[in-house]
């Protein structure tokens, strides 16, 4: 038998050059296909309009996503699907291939608000909120970032003080996804050293003293609801506090969950942009031939495809470890640092292949590139993840 006749067949997906799909189980592929289908049905036909309008029918989408088990899908019990980290990652990739704002809706709901309640809340918190959040009946948000304190949450100005058996919150939060449509907010506040320092609170958004204002004039993540939260004399009962965590380890644990989703999700934006550029290059005729036949174009496509596959292998490796032994913070940082920077580079390079058409809303590339500028920053800037990795390498903290 000749060497050529024994070669394996080429993958059905031309972007899967190293057969990453062969590492997935049939169940994982089915979850990916189901997520891709719901996006094709309820997101893709409308997402460019939502982006242009700077709005999102988030409640309607949440119910659709809840119907197929995407909300809190990696959590167990309380109506959640109980799927694996790899399952969740694959879903994030497909959601962000439609739009980063769509993945953010699911990520904030499941990996921030629901995870905080699931991991640190009382049984009453869990019973009250998680089943309704899993179906999309109730929407959650996560209040950590403040107008003047993003990368340094330990310096937050939102305060919680004891007043008898109650807690009283005053302060504000900024850049909060789902904030103005949320039914419940997980809010982090400084309660003073005598009360454990940073504490988390489960806050129904109809509580007097709570207000949310939708942010406008965004040039990125436009198909997403982003808000400022304010608390003025917001009075909560004693049992509103998350009892099982004090200090920054609570919000940082939640952020690690959400950052893991970004490791996968950013690749969805990259894949969508690469595929748009690949198809365009085969259809666009210049100098009497498709531009796909020119060496410079092929060099761009080869580089983008290679980085995409390497990012997928990294995401899958981290997902398998998360499902078995768990992830250390620096491992999540490596994933976000690499995949978001490479995804943004892929989108920018894809735009050059499309030329002037790359800025047109008829193609997804510029929308993805604009969105990834936000993803690059939120849930840990590139600089902060760089320092996490640097500390793991040297044992020296360079944060201060």
From TrEMBL:
Belongs to the acyl-CoA dehydrogenase family. Residues 25-137 form the Acyl-CoA dehydrogenase/oxidase N-terminal domain. It comes from the Bacteria. This is Acyl-CoA dehydrogenase family protein. Keywords: FAD, Flavoprotein, Oxidoreductase, Transit peptide. Signal peptide: none annotated. The keyword Metal-binding does not apply. InterPro entries: Acyl-CoA_Oxase/DH_mid-dom, Acyl-CoA_Oxase/DH_mid-dom_sf, AcylCo_DH-like_C, AcylCo_DH/oxidase_C, AcylCoA_DH/ox_N, AcylCoA_DH/ox_N_sf, AcylCoA_DH/oxidase_NM_dom_sf, Glutaryl-CoA_DH_mitochondrial. Pfam families: Acyl-CoA_dh_1 (PF00441), Acyl-CoA_dh_M (PF02770), Acyl-CoA_dh_N (PF02771). Residues 141-232 form the Acyl-CoA oxidase/dehydrogenase middle domain. PANTHER family: GLUTARYL-COA DEHYDROGENASE, MITOCHONDRIAL. It comes from Fodinibacter luteus. Its cofactor is FAD. Residues 247-393 form the Acyl-CoA dehydrogenase/oxidase C-terminal domain.
């Amino acid at each position: 038998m000749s060497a050529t006749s024994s070669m394996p067949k080429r993958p059905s997906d031309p972007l899967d050059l190293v057969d990453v799909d062969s590492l997935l189980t049939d169940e994982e592929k089915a979850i990916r296909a189901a997520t891709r289908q719901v996006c094709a049905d309820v997101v893709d036909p409308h997402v460019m309009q939502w982006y242009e309008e700077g709005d999102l029918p988030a409640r309607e989408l949440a119910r659709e996503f809840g119907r197929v088990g995407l909300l809190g899908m990696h959590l167990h019990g309380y109506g959640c699907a109980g799927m694996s980290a790899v399952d969740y990652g694959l879903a994030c990739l497909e959601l962000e291939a439609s739009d980063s704002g769509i993945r953010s809706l699911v990520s904030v709901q499941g990996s921030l608000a629901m995870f905080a309640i699931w991991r640190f809340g009382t049984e009453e918190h869990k019973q009250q909120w998680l089943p309704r959040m899993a179906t999309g009946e109730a929407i959650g948000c996560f209040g950590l970032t403040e107008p003047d304190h993003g990368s340094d949450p330990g310096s937050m100005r939102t305060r919680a003080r004891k007043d008898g058996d109650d807690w009283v919150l005053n302060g504000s939060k900024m850049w909060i996804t789902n904030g103005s449509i949320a039914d419940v907010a997980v809010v982090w506040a400084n309660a003073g050293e005598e009360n454990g320092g940073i504490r988390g609170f489960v806050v129904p958004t109809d509580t007097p003293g709570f207000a949310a204002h939708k942010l406008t004039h965004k040039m990125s993540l436009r198909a997403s609801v982003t808000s400022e939260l304010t608390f003025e004399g917001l009075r909560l009962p004693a049992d509103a506090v998350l009892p099982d965590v004090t200090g920054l380890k609570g919000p940082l644990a939640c952020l690690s969950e959400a950052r893991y989703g970004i490791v996968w999700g950013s690749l969805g934006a990259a894949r969508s942009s690469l595929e748009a550029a690949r198809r365009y290059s085969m259809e666009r005729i210049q100098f009497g031939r498709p531009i796909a036949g020119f060496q410079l174009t092929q060099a761009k496509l080869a580089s983008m495809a290679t980085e995409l596959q390497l990012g997928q292998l990294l995401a899958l490796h981290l997902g398998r470890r998360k499902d078995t032994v768990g992830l250390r913070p620096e491992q999540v940082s490596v994933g976000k640092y690499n995949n978001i920077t490479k995804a943004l580079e892929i989108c920018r390079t894809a735009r050059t292949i499309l030329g002037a058409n790359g800025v047109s809303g008829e193609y997804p590339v510029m929308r993805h590139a604009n969105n990834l500028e936000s993803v690059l920053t939120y849930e840990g800037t590139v600089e902060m993840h760089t320092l996490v990795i640097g500390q793991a390498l040297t044992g020296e903290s360079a944060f201060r």
